[in-house]
Every structure is written in C-alpha cells, then in structure tokens.
C-alpha cells in the first residue's frame, strides 16, 4: 500500500482511529509505528506525518552493542538474544577477538554476513559488523597509522548512507590517554566528514563520553576526574554536534534519563548507577527517516546494554 503525503491533522487522527478500531496492525503502511508514537508521552504530529510519508520504505533496524568480549558474551546467551531482536545490522564493539575467532564464536548465528576489524594485540579492543544485506563495501579503520592498530572502527556502505561503528579510546585511569583521545576525536570527525561528502553517515558505538550531566548518575563527583566525563571529552563530543551530527536518542527524548553502561562494582546495575556512553549519531539529512532510537536496558550479557535505531 502506498500513501500520499498527508498534511491534514484531522485525517491523521481519523486514520489512527481506524487502526485502533479494526486492530489492523499488520498493514504494511506502518500502523504499528503510528500507534507507538501516539503512545509516547509527548504527542508529536510532525513525527506522525514523517512516518506516513515514508510508508513505502522498509524499516531498517540497526543494533549497536559493546559486548565486552564476544566469546564471553556468547556463553551468556548472546546468539539467542540477538536472534530474538532480529536486527538487520548488528554493530559490535570490544569484541576482543580476531576475525577467525569472531566467525567461530558466531557460528550458530545464521543469516548474517560477518565483517571484523581486530587489534594487532590479540584479545584487545576490536569491532565487527553483522549484516543481513551484503554492504556495497567494508572499510576498516580511518587510514591513519597512529589510530589503525587497535581495530576501533569498521564502516559499511549501504545505498543511502555509510554506517560507522566505533569503540572510541578510553582516556584511561589517571586520564593518561586524554591527549591522545583529543587527537582521536579531531581525526575521527575529519574521517566522518569526508565520508559525508559522498552520502549521509550514521555513527554508532561506545563513544566513551557522557555528554550532559543527565547522562550519568553522579556528574559532580566524576567531572574532570573520571575518564568519560572530562571537559576535553565533552568538548570533543560537542565538536561532532557542531559539525552537523545529531545525537538521535537525545533528539527524540530530550528529557529521558537512561544509561547504557554500569560498572561491575558495587551492584551498580541493580541500583541503576550508570552512564550513557553508547550512541547513535546521524547526519541531519537522515532525521526525517528516523522512526525511533532506544536503549535496551533489560538485555544482559555485558556491562553495556545494546542501543537500537529504527530508520526508514
């Protein structure tokens, strides 16, 4: 079913009422998504119109997860959980595995092309992309020798955008890598902007920074003392925003407090003493096609939880 652009508020309401009345949630014109938006705390007619406009597109579900060791995660029902989510693309960070080890660990996961970028040091860092559809091309790293030995970036090119997943360097205990992190942010932004000259960019992954005070449970005690919440790192994140990349979760949910990482110590996850350091950033041109962005805090298996983007 193809819908023409609907700009009448009353027609949208009428259409939604029909969905509810006849419970026709299996229509290809995205009734489910309209209902989902209507159930949000803030009713947003503009988003409804966007969804109806893009009703001829297939929804693409992209999952990003720092698994803190892929082989360990597989022993904690990773494959079963991923299969239930049924994402079109799965972006993994901190796999701590070489390409052959990634393939072996995921041997039970069917239906995905598997691409891995690994650190030269075994059992360290490393990223991977699992994709149902074969990408146009895969690009490892950012082609800068100083940064390209830790397997922190892997990029998949699709028809409408580049999908980049990254495990951004942690500034370390005592902030020993803070200056390196500052240079990384500059070089990584240049890499993304170069890609963006060709087509839109989606960046996901563990960006190792809490952007705002609401993005961590204890901002005052951590500010300028703890890696991930120094002004240098915050300024680095701001640099991405100022150069046209949008924090998609925060764009949709400006006031929502949700975390994606919790320390293994002090029962932090049970107490929800966490940080939001896992993100989807996107080119502004993609915003009209964004359906939703969620932090899946109930999914276990790592000290991080997955984050998910749905885009038309």
Q: Which key phrases capture this entry?
A:
disordered N terminus; globular; 22% strand; six-stranded mixed beta sheet; alpha+beta; Deoxyribonuclease I, Chain A; 14 strands; 312 residues; 2 domains
Describe the structure.
This protein has helices at 9-22, 31-38, 45-53, 70-74, 78-85, 99-105, 178-196, 219-222, 231-242, 248-252, 268-271; strands spanning 60-66, 89-93, 113-117, 127-131, 137-140, 153-157, 161-167, 200-206, 245-247, 261-262, 274-275, 278-283, 290-295, 307-311. The chain is an alpha+beta fold and 312 residues long. Strand 7, helix 7 and strand 8 (200-206) form a beta-alpha-beta unit. It folds into two domains: 9-53, no CATH class; 62-311, Endonuclease/exonuclease/phosphatase (Deoxyribonuclease I, Chain A, 4-Layer Sandwich), CATH 3.60.10.10. Helices cover 30% and strands 22% of the residues. The protein has a six-stranded mixed β-sheet with strand order 3-4-2-1-14-13. A six-stranded mixed β-sheet has the order 5-6-7-8-12-9. Strands 10-11 form a two-stranded antiparallel ribbon. The chain has eleven helices and 14 strands.
In short:
It is built from eleven helices and 14 strands. It has 312 residues and is α+β, with helices and mostly antiparallel strands.
């Amino acid at each position: 079913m193809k819908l023409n652009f609907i700009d009448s508020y009353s027609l949208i309401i009428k259409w939604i009422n029909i969905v509810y009345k006849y419970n026709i949630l299996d229509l290809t014109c995205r009734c489910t998504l309209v209902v989902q938006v209507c159930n949000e705390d803030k009713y947003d007619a503009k988003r409804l119109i966007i969804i109806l406009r893009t009703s001829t597109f297939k929804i693409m579900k992209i999952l990003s997860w720092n698994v803190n060791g892929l082989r360990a995660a597989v022993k904690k029902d990773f494959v079963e959980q991923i299969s239930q989510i049924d994402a079109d693309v799965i972006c993994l960070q901190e796999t701590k595995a070489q390409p052959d080890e990634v393939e072996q660990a995921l041997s039970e996961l069917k239906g995905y092309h598997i691409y891995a970028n690994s650190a030269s040091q075994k059992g360290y860092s490393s990223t991977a992309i699992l994709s149902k559809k074969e990408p146009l091309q895969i690009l490892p790293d950012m082609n800068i020798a100083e940064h390209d030995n830790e397997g922190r970036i892997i990029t998949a090119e699709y028809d409408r955008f580049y999908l980049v997943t990254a495990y951004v360097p942690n500034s370390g205990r005592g902030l020993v890598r803070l200056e390196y992190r500052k240079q990384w942010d500059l070089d990584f932004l240049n890499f993304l902007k170069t890609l963006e000259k060709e087509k839109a960019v989606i960046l996901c992954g563990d960006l190792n920074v809490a952007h705002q005070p609401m993005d961590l449970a204890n901002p005052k005690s951590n500010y300028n003392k703890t890696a991930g919440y120094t002004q240098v790192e915050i300024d680095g994140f701001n640099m991405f925003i100022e150069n046209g990349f949008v924090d998609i979760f925060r764009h949709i949910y400006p006031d929502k407090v949700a975390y994606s990482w919790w320390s293994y110590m002090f029962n932090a996850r049970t107490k929800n003493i966490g940080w939001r350091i896992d993100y989807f950033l996107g080119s502004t041109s993609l915003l009209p096609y964004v359906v939703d962005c969620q932090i899946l805090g109930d999914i276990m298996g790592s000290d991080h939880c997955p984050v998910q983007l749905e885009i038309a």
